[in-house]
Amino acid sequence: MQIQSNFSLRHLNTFGLESEARYFVEARSIEELTEILLDPVWKQTAKFILGGGSNVLFTRNVDALVIHPVIKGIEKIKEDDDRVWLKVGGGEVWHDFVMHCVENNYGGIENLSLIPGTVGAAPMQNIGAYGVEIKDVIESVEGVSIQNGQKRTFSKEECQFGYRESVFKRALKDQYVITGATFVLSKNPVLNVGYGDVKKTLEEMNVASPTIRDVSDAIIKIRQSKLPDPAQIGNAGSFFKNPEIPSGQYAELKETFAEMPGYVVSAEKVKVPAGWLIEQAGWKGYRRGAIGVHERQALVLVNYGGGNGNDIKALAEEIKASVSVKFGIDLNAEVNFI
Predict the structure, then answer these.
(1) Cα distance between residue 111 and residue 266, in whole Å
(2) Which CATH number does the domain housing residue 124 bear?
(3) Is the pTM of this model over 0.90?
(4) What is the Cα–Cα distance from 215 to 106, expressed in whole angstroms?
(5) What 8-state DSSP symbol labels residue 118?
(6) Catalytic residue annotation
(7) In this structure, are residues 98 and 216 in contact, taking their beta carbons and an 8 Å threshold?
(8) What is the DSSP string of 284-312?
(9) What stretch or stretches form a coiled coil here (predicted)?
(10) Is 216 inside a domain boundary?
(11) Looking at residue 42, which CATH number applies to its domain?
(12) How many angstroms separate the CA atoms of 230 and 218, rounded?
């Protein structure tokens, strides 16, 4: 392992923002990761774990040892007539793993196609899209303690998954490096095509009886039509969570905003698309110098090149304030501010 000083993180975050790590190291195995965590030379140095960088907004340099785990591997560890269990390294690119499952006709995560980031970051955020969340297919998560290098396996229940939440963002924040996860996929899946534009897109593709690949292709087509490619325009995908509001509040808002979409979460809660709220508040396509709100998807804040993380943070606060004034709804960022 080579530890580098004053290392640029610009190519390791999808916003493409300049940030400098005081120290940086890449760990290609659990053994290398444990070695650096237990090294007495670095024991007292603050540590920051950086995966695919698809969910971070750098607003400063990182005065720490930045550890970039790239632990790979997809291993079939068990199967029966209906299911297959796959153990996957945390450094695997999430979309590559989805494509592996699609190619092998393993169902359950095809709706999560083209989500940026790594497998290790996925359970931390409980990533989700088009009616599916990672908690629906995960069995366990493996991690290594940053404090003492001890390995630990977390059951699905111990992960305490919520909407874009997990124990790794709350009680165990900054305490573990997620090195891998075990997923349970279906050999005879029930396809989920009822959320968003999936069914409509399949119809446009002239697909009457969709396969796993058809659903994946439809999701990719939808995402590419709405979301900018980070390789072309810096962004972190959805910047805000879709807020869940009381059913009574939603009913009252519908009286004023008849077109307001909503998805029933429970008898008490309705989920409202944050992108719709932001667009109605007048932000879609807004640009301020090198940063702005994407012209096709108001939920995505972008860096057109040379942008500053603090400027994006300030823009996000302005958007939150305007949505709160117009609708009385508080938006919460899905992106982590650093």
Answers:
(1) 22
(2) 3.30.465.10
(3) no
(4) 13
(5) B
(6) 164, 238, 334
(7) yes
(8) TT-EETTEEE-SS-TT-EEE-SS--HHHH
(9) none
(10) no
(11) 3.30.43.10
(12) 20
Kindly state the DSSP code that residue 59 receives in the 8-state scheme: -
Cα–Cα distance for residue pair 314/304, rounded to 1 Å: 16
Contact 36, 42 (CB under 8 A): yes
CB 308 within 8 A of CB 52: no
Residue 298's domain spans which residues?
A: 234-337
Integer angstrom CA distances of residue 325 from 31, 225, 311? 51, 30, 21
Same domain, 248 and 332: yes
Same domain, 42 and 107: no
Q: Are strands 62-69 and 20-27 parallel, antiparallel or unpaired?
A: parallel
pLDDT in tens, 271-311: 999 999 999 999 999 999 999 999 888 999 999 988 889 99
Please check whether residue 193 lies inside any domain of the structure.
no
CA 25 to chain centre: 23
Place of tokens 């359970």: 123
Please indicate, yes or no, if residue 213 is contained in any of the structural domains.
no
Examine the fold and report which residue of 45, 69, 93 is the final residue of a domain before the chain moves on. 69
Q: Give the side-chain half-sphere CA count within 13 A for 338.
A: 26
234-235 and 301-303: which strand pairing?
A: antiparallel
Structure tokens at 256: 């004023």
Structural domains of the chain, count = 3
Domain end position, chosen among 14, 37, 69: 69
Of all residues in the chain, the percent with pLDDT exceeding 90 is 62
The CA-based angle 162-112-330, given to 5 degrees, is 45
Asked, for residue 49, whether it belongs to a domain, the answer is yes
